[in-house]
Amino acid sequence: MSIFAVISHQLTRFTAPVIILASITAFIEPATFAWVKGDTQILVLGIIMLGMGMTLGKADYRILAQRPLDILVGAAAQYTIMPLVAIAVAKALDLSTGLTLGLVLVGTCPGGVSSNIMSFLAKGDVAFSVGMTTVSTLLAPVMTPLWMMYLIGETVDMDGWGMFKFMLLVTLLPVVIGSVCNMFFEHKPWFADVRAVMPGVAVLAFACIVGGVAAVHGHRFMESALVMLVAIAAHNIIGYILGYYSGALFGMDTAKKRTLAIEVGVQNAGLATGLSAKFFPTNAESAVATAVACVWHSVSGTVLGNLFAWWDKRKAQ
């Protein structure tokens, strides 16, 4: 399976172009991704989370035990900065109910599954990144519904308890299954082969989710394209800045500050897209906003990681 591992590595390196290509393809020829909806979309989302779980082993949980303060600061930053910035941006730009819903969904979701790769590109603390992603994902079934109910529960009809149960099934359960398999089979050659392929599978799955939304709602994109992009970009960039300075506030070194910036700023917008489709199926603006956020976060996170690396090279010269 070595050739598949190589392909998987390349797909993770070029996550952003793959997702953009899927979006454009779905926009031009919707039938290409029209099948990614309903239960199929939920299954695809579960595959992404299973792939994440398969990367988590005993060493990763030891990191959580050995670095509780770092992880606590990271989780607190993740689940305060992004939800509050999302609602603040929505109010500042006077976004419609649908766009507000989409932006807050993105803001209340855990860190993105590709943030570990971005932290590596940025010469950040990858172990810290893995720990933060793990904890924010494990907390998501509780934190995401709570924040959604608190921030927009009065303006949008939503089922917080249903969202909690759904997230347990679609996020936590696949992560736990993948992690348990990793701990039991980590020394088996066949499992190592499967694990090496899963990041690429996750990228393709993300592309399918975004493509599915673009296929169904792509024609609505131009209705609010400019304000949507401004809101998503502002939310994301402010997350990077506040994440970085949260690390500085607690005296973290450069590698940790970069990691915290990426972990806070890059959200699991694919999960937000799935939640939008499941719980707000009639709200096209929310679906489009979360799908656009998938693309934006993939592109901006990769760019930021490379900028950090470029800065290091420039200083070294």
TrEMBL record:
Q: What is its main location?
A: membrane
Pfam families recorded for this chain? SBF (PF01758)
Alphabetically ordered keywords of this record = Membrane, Transmembrane, Transmembrane helix
Q: Which domain of life is it from?
A: Bacteria
What subcellular compartments does it reside in? Membrane
Which Gene Ontology terms of cellular component type are present? membrane
Transmembrane feature ranges: 12-36, 42-59, 71-93, 99-121, 128-152, 164-185, 197-219, 225-248
InterPro entries for the chain: BilAc:Na_symport/Acr3, Bilac:Na_transpt, Na+/solute_symporter_sf
- What is its membrane topology? Multi-pass membrane protein
Q: What is this protein called?
A: Bile acid:sodium symporter family protein
- Biological source species: Neisseria weixii
